[in-house]
Every structure is written in C-alpha cells, then in structure tokens.
Amino acid sequence: MRPAPIRVTCPSWDFCATDRCNTHDLSRYRPFLVAGQHVGHVREDFFRRLLDLGGPFEPAGDGIALAERSGTAAGRTAAMAAALDALVADGTVPGLRRETYPVLTRWGAEPLLGIDRAAVPFFGLRSFGLHVNGYVRRPDGLHLWVGHRARDRGVAPGKLDNLVAGGQPMGLTLAENLRKEAHEEAGLPAAVADRSRPVGVISYLLENGSGLKPDTLFCYDLELPDGLVPRNTDGEVERFELWPLDRVAESVAGSDDWKFNVNLVVIDFLIRHGWLTPDHPEYIALCSGLRR
Questions:
Q1: Which site from 43, 195, 216, 278 is most exposed, i.e. has the minimal number of CB atoms within 10 Å?
Q2: What Gene Ontology terms describe what this protein does at the molecular function level (predicted)?
Q3: Is there a single domain that holds both residue 86 and residue 139?
C-alpha cells in the first residue's frame, strides 16, 4: 500500500516554514535503487521516462534500478552521466549544474556513484549541505548577518540568506567545503572560517517541481568581531546587512522573504540562543519539525 499524502496546517504565527519544507506525497513515487540499495524515489512520470530510456535503468520490483554493469562507483557515475545527457537533450531534465553530489546510503558511507546536482531531486536522493550563522555580540544583544541573494540566481533570487551556505559536493570534506564557501560567499579567510562551531543538523523532505528533496543541513555558528564586514566574491549575494535578532525573528515570522530552507536554520538559531522559548505555543512543533 502506498503511503498517504502528508498535508500540514501552519500555525497562526508564520513559523510554518518547518511544515512547508515537509510537504510531500510519497504515493506518487517509486523506489530508486543502486547496487541493491534503496537510495531514492522517482515520480511516476519520470519512472515511465526512465523505463522508455532503458540503457542503464531496469525495472526492480515496483521501482527502478541503475543496472549493475561495472559494479564500481566510477562505472555507475559514467552510466548515470550518459543517461543524464540523453534526458537533458530531450528536455526531461532542464539542464545540468556541472557540480557532482555523492549518492550515499548514509552519511559517512562510501559513495555509490556521483550525480550532477541538478538531477538529485529527479531521483529523490538525499543531499547534504552546510549553513553558517554569522553573528555579532553587541551591548544590545546578538545581531545576525543577513545576505540578500542576487536577483539573477536560478534558486531563490532576491531572497534573504545565511552568511554562508552551500551544498556538499563529492570529493570535499565538510571543513574543506566550509572554507571554500566562506571565501566565495563572504570573503572570509580560512583562519576565520575554521572558527565556525558545529551545532547540529536540520533535515526535511520537500516535494518540488522536479521531485523530492530529502535534505540534511549541517549547521554552524560563527561569532565575528564587530566591524568585520563580509564581502561576496562569486556574485551569489548582492549585499550583507547586520540585523538584531528581533528584526530577524519578525521577518522570519511574518514574511516570505527568506530562501525556503534558510528559515529553518534561523529558527534553529533563535531556539538555541534563547530568543524563542518554550513559552511559545508552537515551540515543541518547531523543535521536532526541524529534524524530520
């Protein structure tokens, strides 16, 4: 029996980003397997297209699998790349990002293959990323650095963002990726980026126009000295502003100005730093909604 759709009702005070990021209908999806492991889900229409494509894909129970021809990660990566070229050519997949993500059975396992970032939601694969809350202590309380995303971005143009954020590509450690993203997005040297403190993970399962996004975000806090102004170097962010937590919370609670998953990271920050307390009627729902 297929799972029933998950539908949510937002609380009156719009911290319902935790719900919006966990809205999906698994009854419309089939299992996707690699090396005998269930690693993702494909939507029914995409499932039919993969069956028609044949090649590296073959039926597997009520789902579909990447056929085992080489038995190696490199061989699977090459087979998937060739299939994606065909899917891009016929318009099924709009285009590729030329950034490779690992396909994992669990965090810390050896990758089964690498796949272009753009194709990850089509196969419903779990992806990983990191988000850094850059904050400053002032006499009147904590202030958070807020990025305004460039309006030419393919994802969330013009929305508000964390100081540093990025997907976790294949072949880099988290520490290496954090240094890279900190330099590109905020102009921070490695010595500053290395002061970032890991504070936990956020996970959600979101359905979008391409498929499913079962994402895990590694969260970090980075306290910065007052007067250090971040500077974007890769064109992703137009500018940074330093906001007091009251303004941050008001914006998250009452607007749709933030990139869809950054809301979650900010809510987590507000909880951990005591701004959002158990007195709030949605406190338990919010805490549990950050790690579904």
A1: 278
A2: 8-oxo-dGDP phosphatase activity
A3: no
